[in-house]
Amino acid sequence: MGDPLARETEVFYPAFSELTINRLLLEKVLGYRAGGTPEVISRLIDEILPEVPSRTSVQCGFSILPIGAVSVSRETFTCDGVQFTTGPIIAKQLRASTTLALFVATIGSQVEQWARDLIDSGDAVKGYIADAAASEAVEQAADWLEKKVTERVRDRGWKLTNRYSPGYCDWSVAEQHKLFSLLPERFCGVELTPSSLMLPIKSVSGVIGLGPEVKRDPTVCSICDMKDCFRRQEEPAAT
Amino acid sequence: MATDNLLESLKRCIERGKVNCKSPHPPDMKGQDGADELTRKALDTGIPPQDVLSNALVLGMQHVGERFRNKEIFVPDVLMSAKAMSAAMEHLKPFFKSDALKHRGTIVMGTVLGDLHDIGKKIVSMVIEGAGWEVVDLGTDVSPEKFLTAVDQHPGCVIGLSALLTTTMINMETTIRHVKGKHPGIKIIVGGAPVTQEFANKIGADGYSPDPQGAVEFLNTRCLQN
Predict the structure, then answer these.
(1) Which among A81, A108, B133, B152 is least buried, having the fewest CB atoms inside 10 angstroms?
(2) Are B168 and A119 inside 8 Å of each other by CB?
């Protein structure tokens, strides 16, 4: 169950088979509506997917901060004395948190390199699909990790907010350095460049609010009024 | 096949991503000649290479770019077309070498210093090549000095800067200042997910586009030298 007054840090190495990447999902990620994917693209996805698992090494981990080490204000939150300026959109979502979980997830650098090699060798379509599969895999690794955090805090009666990453919703990506300063060195094998780029590139990091009163939005972009944001996800169509 | 029909068929191969006779895509064109064979036939028939390029290949890719912008097709479709275009261009290479055929101009592309994202830039480069421009790709993490060296090597070129991070897109401004300090007349276009028109204006870029076709339109309207 863990001690909420101590920092709890754990790293996982889930098998690729615990992720659920399939052709239909990837077709949707690539932009196609159900039934609208060109046959050649579906076939290429079928060729690529079996090759992805052997080229990934999924690692993910969280660090739940002790109660009392975290405070959230209107536009910022502070962990162990390190202040993050997220802007009001994310801070509002974290406000009810008892504490926060910092997290990192990665699938390693092999798929990304494979995708680049395919493109450089003239097979741009296959390379692009491999890259899209890698992007989807790392998001799913973060989803998998969220379930582990949920299991860890369930007995305390805590819930989770959505996960938020530097670079989203007005939170500067430059604050990656602050985030990583609160984690063990090369946590999950991920490191930062001076420009805040994570290496391996197919990695995600961020923060999740934890507590009995926190809320989770079905679509993370519904909380944000930055309508022209390039990361904006479409709202699901009303049925 | 009459000249017009041949060029129209070639254009259609580009639009549909039909590379060659052997390629099974698209299924309704299975067994038919692709961009590879039709380009050869067009040249062998005596159609001037410039007509092949301008009246079939470039028009085909232009249509592809427009459909992508309208979200009628997606990146893999654009890449299929780019592959067909590439197969056709193999036959035109000797004409470029002998100066019988000229590119519309040269653009030096690169992802700015500190940023390693590559794929978006490559997709834009393929569409630009399909519009008849020569692309010199400097890769990723390109310093202002490297851009300047490339400009010196390719007089009259345009520069295309790419970035995918808010922390690295500020290096576009440094690059623009560095290059324009020596070549004030050079045209520079910027793009990448976090880049906006407002940001492009602020840093002194000459152009911005959220999609590849916009980059082609900028080149063809603002950067042609003759």
Answers:
(1) A81
(2) no
Q: Is A87 exposed, middle or buried (0-12, 13-18, 19+ CB in 10 A)?
A: middle
CATH number of the CATH domain containing B79: 1.10.1240.10
Please state, in angstroms and rounded to a whole number, the distance separating the CA atoms of residues A187 and A103.
9
pLDDT score of A161: 96
Q: Strands of B188-191's sheet, edge to edge?
A: B134-137, B106-111, B158-162, B188-191, B207-208
Residue with structure tokens 């910022």? A76
In one letter, which amino acid is A109? S
Specify the CATH number for the domain of residue A174. 3.40.109.40
Domain that holds residue B16: 3-97
CA distance B71 to B64: 11
Of B119, B126, B165, the CB nearest to A195: B165
Amino acid present at B60: G
Q: What is the ipTM of this complex?
A: 0.87
How much of chain A exceeds pLDDT 90, in percent? 79
Tally of domains within chain A: 1
SS3 assignment, position B106: strand
Q: What is the Cα Rg of chain A in Å?
A: 19
Distance, in Å, from the CA atom of B9 to the CA atom of B7, rounded to the nearest integer, reads: 5
Residue with tokens 């070129």: B157
Contacts of A39 in chain B (CB under 8 A): 25-27
Quote the number of domains for chain B: 2
Q: Do B25 and A116 touch (CB under 8 A)?
A: no
Pick among A23, A48, A125 to test the B interface (most B CBs inside 10 A): A125
Q: How far is the C-alpha of B157 from the C-alpha of B136, rounded, in Å?
A: 10
Chain A residues whose C-beta is within 8 A of a chain B C-beta are 30-32, 38-41, 44, 115-116, 119, 122, 124-125, 127-129, 131, 167, 172-174, 193-197, 201, 228, 230-231
Convert B97-113 to b/e letters by CB count within 10 Å (16 or more is b): eeeebeebbbbbbbbbb
Diameter of chain B measured on Cα atoms: 55
pLDDT-based confidence at B95, cuts 50/70/90? very high
Provide the whole-model pTM: 0.89
